Amino acid sequence: MRAFWSRFRQNRGAVIGLIILAIVIICAIAAPFLFPRSPWSMVQRPFLPPFEMDGLPLGTDALGRDVLSGLFHGARVSLLVGLVSTVVALAIGIPIGALAGYYGGLVDDALMRFTEFFQTIPSFALAIVLLAIFQPTLAYVILAIAIVSWPPVARLVRGEVLSLRNREFVEAATLSGQSNLRIILRQVLPNALPPIIVLASLMVATAILLESSLSFLGLGDPNVMSWGYMIGAARTVLRTAWWLSFIPGIAILLTVLALNLIGEGLNDALNPRLRKRTS
């Protein structure tokens, strides 16, 4: 861990991204304590500008709701959707990619054709179709994002497994009588984790953007406050109350930027080729 942190902190952008993400996580955790009232509650007159009234530093929206409260509670939804959908996508993509790369042949062809079928459809369009079929609840939003996010994971894992399955340690495990499942879980996948971890950090950022886009279009859960919903609700008053779209937009920008910077730092710290260069 010391060596990993030493390599990670050499990337200043990654450290800055980690600080920004830590602030967002703290805001999400502190939301129910700092703002116990529902973010949907009306607290003042509508369109109150920022810093005009004490207790409402970011003003109010078109219905008189506290923008800062919505921002904090929206952080919880965005992070939840990003993390859970990424975990579900990894749970789908890793087994498919591992089986395709390890067995090859007909198994590889069948699983990769199945993966390519999902990749031929634009991810955003597929997510819209899925949410149009199902109810736009938070669980279905997470499921829809996971379904459109797993194909890159499968292809990455397949490529890593293809490069590892003929290594000496895998052949030694085969000669020792270990089962294929045990070899995949104990020998192959642990050595393929670094690029998967890097991809996962970028997938969280993509999931947050996708959820924000869906909420902007009114396809998110109408019972939860999210940054995308805040931007979508304020698009009709963009000229008269620009801050209602600008503030959650900056929150999305900083969070996605932080996750991308962290992904670059993880790549620098975990990529063996880069480690050889730095050493």
UniProtKB/TrEMBL annotation:
ABC transmembrane type-1 domain sequence ranges: 75-263
GO cellular component assignments: plasma membrane
GO biological process, one term: protein transport
UniProt keyword Cytoplasm, yes or no: no
Name of this protein: ABC transporter permease
Subcellular location: Cell membrane
Regions crossing the membrane: 12-35, 77-103, 124-150, 196-220, 241-262
Organism, scientific name: Marivita cryptomonadis
Membrane topology summary: Multi-pass membrane protein
Key word Transport present: yes
InterPro entries from the UniProt entry: BP-dependent_transpt_permease, MetI-like, MetI-like_sf, OppC_N
PANTHER family, per the entry: D,D-DIPEPTIDE TRANSPORT SYSTEM PERMEASE PROTEIN DDPC-RELATED, OLIGOPEPTIDE TRANSPORT SYSTEM PERMEASE PROTEIN APPC
Chief location category: membrane
Alphabetized UniProt keyword annotations: Cell membrane, Membrane, Peptide transport, Protein transport, Transmembrane, Transmembrane helix, Transport
Family per similarity comment: Belongs to the binding-protein-dependent transport system permease family.
